[in-house]
Specification:
The protein has 311 residues and is mainly β. It folds into 3 domains: 27-67 and 77-128, Immunoglobulins (Immunoglobulin-like, Sandwich); 133-228, Immunoglobulin-like (Sandwich), CATH 2.60.40.10; 237-304, no CATH class. The chain has 5 helices and 24 strands. The longest helix has 15 residues, at 3-17.
Length: 311
Amino acid sequence: MPARTRNALWLWLLGLALPTGLALAQKPEISNVFPDFADLRGIPHVITGESFDPAKTEVWYWSPPSDEAVIKESAQTLGGALPSLPAEPPKGARRLATLDVEKQVIVAQLQGEVIWVKNPAGWSAPCLINVAKPFWISDTKAPQGEMLHLYGFGLRVRYKNFHVVLKNERATVFAPVIRMAREERVADPRLVYFGVPPDTAPGRYDVYVHNSLGGEFGWRKAGTVEVLPRQKPTEKVLDVRQFGAKGEGLGNDAQAIKEAVSAAQKDSGVVFFPPGTYKTDETILVPSGISLRGASAENTVIEGIGYDPHA
């Protein structure tokens, strides 16, 4: 009998001798995790894939270091290939209790940002979860100093900072994230406003975002923006205080605001509100072409007095 035929026969016989499960065992594969974005507290996660063993499957998780220093340092390397996840759980990773395991489905309360599934044949490939999932940016072109907004899942993680970076071959620019008053309670977790810094050099930039989870692995590309030179303003700016508004948070500034809006309508101008709280007891209609501008979201407040049922 030829040697090649004899070797093939021995391998076939060896396969028959081995337990069926061991002969056919394959490493587990993760095809999908839902939800895979952050800040959905209390919702179980569903992992779908292949080669999950209901009796012997383990799920492990790891949270990479992710403080402000790590995030800022890793931002400098953006633009190239993103770093590779560890093939197996590193030091500091932990095993996670599962709620249910079937051949193709695992249900568990996942933690961390990188997970692995293990069976007797070995480890699955790592899977990244809970980092930001940006979908689109409001504009692809923006003048210096312009405000843009970004939509996606897992952007705002409670009590964590959100980072936006404009990156090209010449510069790494951290864009300021616009935060509104009482934001933690009322803000849409899927929406983030950010500004293009006024001193950003004109040019094309890739936009990357980070929700403070995942460390060097947490940066996600959101799109591209072309920064344009800011045009010199041609609109006429009217100070609402020149029309009698006080902005001290005590009196009713409705009439002064209406007069300023009416004057601005003649020149399609801007009504500017210096720092202060401007109270009004009625709805003020702002015609098309008129802009209202404040010192900032924190320093300029227009507040409706409303109807006092006890008056």
